[in-house]
Write a structure and sequence with these properties.
Structural class: mainly beta
Order of helices and strands: EEEEEEEEEE
Number of strands: 10
Strand content: over 45%
Number of helices: 0
Radius of gyration: 13 Å
Strand order of the largest sheet: 2-10-9-4-5-6
Length: 124
C-alpha cells in the first residue's frame, strides 16, 4: 500500500517545539515534492510548507515562516517538519502528502498518498 505516515505530534506549551516526521510506505520519497498541510477544527485544510525534488527548494506559508523548517532525508525515506516557537493558533491535525512531479507549486488536489495525520495541540 502506497501511503505516507505522519508522527511526532503531541501537546506542547506555547513557545515550545515539536518535530514531525513523514515516512513513506510502499514507495520512495525521492523524486516527490512533499508538502505539509494542517487542518484546524472548522477550517479548511491549508498548505504550510513544501520541499521540492530534486533541488530541495523549500516553501513556507507566511504564518509559519521563520518558525518552521522542512527538510528531507531520502536515505531514510523521511521528510521532517521542525516546528519552533509554537503558538496556540498552530493547533491542528498535520498531514503530509506527495506530488509525483517533484513540484511544490501545485494545487492541493495534485498531492496524494495522504497519511492519517498527527495531532498538534499548543496550549498552556
Amino acid at each position: 500500500q502506497v501511503q505516507l505516515v505522519e508522527s511526532g505530534g503531541g501537546l506542547v506549551q506555547p513557545g515550545g517545539s515539536l518535530r514531525l516526521s513523514c515516512v513513506a510506505s510502499g514507495f520512495t520519497l525521492d523524486g516527490y515534492g512533499i508538502g505539509w498541510f494542517r487542518q484546524a477544527p472548522g477550517k479548511e485544510r491549508e498548505g504550510i510548507s513544501c520541499i521540492s525534488s530534486p533541488d530541495e527548494t523549500t516553501y513556507y506559508e507566511n504564518s509559519v515562516k521563520g518558525r518552521f523548517t522542512i527538510s528531507r532525508d531520502n536515505a531514510k525515506n523521511t521528510v521532517y517538519l521542525q516546528m519552533d516557537s509554537l503558538k496556540p493558533e498552530d493547533t491542528a491535525v498535520y498531514y503530509c502528502a506527495g506530488e509525483a512531479h517533484g513540484w511544490c507549486h501545485s494545487s492541493l488536489s495534485d498531492f496524494g498518498s495522504w497519511g492519517q495525520g498527527t495531532q498538534v495541540i499548543v496550549s498552556a
